[in-house]
Amino acid sequence: MLPIGRRIADLAAADPERPAITFVGEGGLVRSVPRGELDRRTNRLARAYAGLGAGQDDLVTITLPNGIEFYEAAIAIWTLGATPQPVSSRLPDRERLAIVDLAQPALVVGVEEGSHGGRRTVPAGFEADPDLADTALPDAVAASWKAPTSGGSTGRPKLILAAQPGVVDVDAGPRYGMPSDGVQLVPGPLYHNSPFVFSMHGLFFGNQLVVLGRFDAALSLEMIERHRVDWVVLVPTMVHRIWRLPEEERLARDVSSLRTVLHLAAPCPPWLKQAWIDWLGVERICELYGGTEAQAATWITGPEWLAHRGSVGRFVSGEARILDPDGNDVPPGEVGEVFLRSTPGTGPTDRYLGAQPRERDGWESLGDMGSLDADGYLYLADREADMILAGGANVYPAEIEAGLDEHSLVRSSAVIGLPDDDMGQRIHAIIQLAGELGAAELRAHLAERVVSYKIPRSFERVEQPLRDDAGKVRRSALRHDRVPELGGA
């Protein structure tokens, strides 16, 4: 095990001129930093942060957009034995203030002085004093290597502090099909857990990171071709947007360098996954299911998925139970709430700050509904909080959204339940379209894909995307916007 700061220094010593991070900003502007320069800059930055009060096991909030500066901040924090606590750079002041008030960080990176009262801050674009030394600092290891935030279904912030310390297990090597000294595309926002974790993991194992300022479907394929990317993690929203590019544009790009396309974070419609398998080949497509809490995780390869269509895989770490509302185990194939725990004897994987886990006898729920088959393969239905009870039937929005998104004119969709005197809840679809498409056509399209009682009774067109760059949709907020008395975030 090596401290993260030491690992960055070792990679720099091994090949100081190899690009560590290549950032692709607006207008295709590209900037790269080699390993040696990254090591020197982060050593100097660590000393600057220390001078501002950051130190062993402190939380340091990072509110920076995607870019080299984000990685430099995180590495400098680890070098001090502190814990990076990333948040979106686009958070409204009120939300950021609530998170900082909860975290009580020693330093906030990326905000103007005075924006958090007397708390120490540095602005975006901060440069350490060039007179500070850029040589190695004494080894230091944070007790928790990351502390991302999650609003969950409540909309109130909580921090999820990893139980793993700030070290790299070099002997274990990279996981999830990731190479060493390869090239990884990073299209997602770094304040979200999966882009943060997987890109940092890639960096620690010598991969060149090609980081997009914001996700762009066409630009992603261009960067895969230009930099010979061999590994990428996507969320289904990204998978869908890339697939909806004009076919001649998508097929014109050389993506033969790709070895692994990993998707996660939300259910991927089977039709879309099959389309990617047909395009890139079954061996390249993999899927992972797990939470930021990391109690347990599943893994499934493309060939496995073809044999267990719709599954997110079997558990490769931790364990799962599927329980009914009374806490009883349900039979194989029956949908219930998914409860997870780490493998007995391995210890906890996280702790919450600002919330308590939803727990039953040592098993924790992330709020997902699903089923296990007789072979131990997990199938997800949807989030419990998003389930619609319409006429006494349980309806899962993700299934309807998958059907809607299969239409070539649907860019994004979200399905919610609205109050209804007759049905209890009325299924309402909100859609972003790429052309003219009427409700009758949408109903006819869905009639071939879902049972009749799951077809929305009302449709609403919007112009803006319904999911963020991490593929997340806040259905509670959409419900609240339309029926304020329902509450929500």
CATH homologous superfamily (4th level) name of the domain at 270-384:
Luciferase, Domain 3
Ends apart, CA distance between termini: 41 Å
Looking at the overall shape, the CATH architecture of the domain at 270-384 is Roll
CATH C-level class of the domain at 270-384: Mainly Beta
Range of helix content: 25-40%
Shape: globular
Task: Report on the architecture of this protein.
The structure is a single chain. Helix content is 27%, strand content 27%. With 489 residues, the chain is an alpha/beta fold. Among the domains are: 270-384, Luciferase, domain 3 (Roll); 387-486, GMP Synthetase, Chain A, domain 3, CATH 3.30.300. The strands form seven sheets. Strands 3-2-12-11-13-14-15-16-17 form a nine-stranded mixed sheet, with helices on both faces. Strands 18, 19, 21, 22 and 23 form a five-stranded antiparallel sheet that branches. Strands 5-4-6-7 form a four-stranded parallel sheet, covered by helices on one side. The longest helix has 17 residues, at 35-51. The radius of gyration is 23 Å and the shape is globular.
Short précis:
Helix 1 packs antiparallel against helix 2 (35-51). By secondary structure, the chain is α/β, with parallel strands linked by helices.
Reconstruct the topology from this structure.
Layout: E1 2-3, H1 4-14, E2 19-24, E3 30-34, H2 35-51, E4 59-62, H3 68-79, E5 83-86, H4 93-103, E6 107-109, E7 121-122, E8 149-150, E9 158-162, E10 167-168, E11 183-186, H5 193-204, E12 208-212, H6 217-227, E13 231-234, H7 236-243, H8 247-252, E14 260-263, H9 270-280, E15 285-290, E16 297-301, H10 302-307, E17 314-317, E18 319-323, E19 336-341, E20 350-353, E21 358-360, E22 363-372, E23 378-383, E24 388-390, E25 393-395, H11 397-405, E26 410-420, E27 424-433, H12 439-447, E28 458-462, H13 475-482
Parallel strand pairs: 2-12, 4-5, 4-6, 6-7, 11-12, 11-13, 13-14, 14-15, 27-28
Antiparallel strand pairs: 1-10, 2-3, 8-9, 9-20, 15-16, 16-17, 18-19, 19-22, 21-22, 22-23, 24-25, 26-27
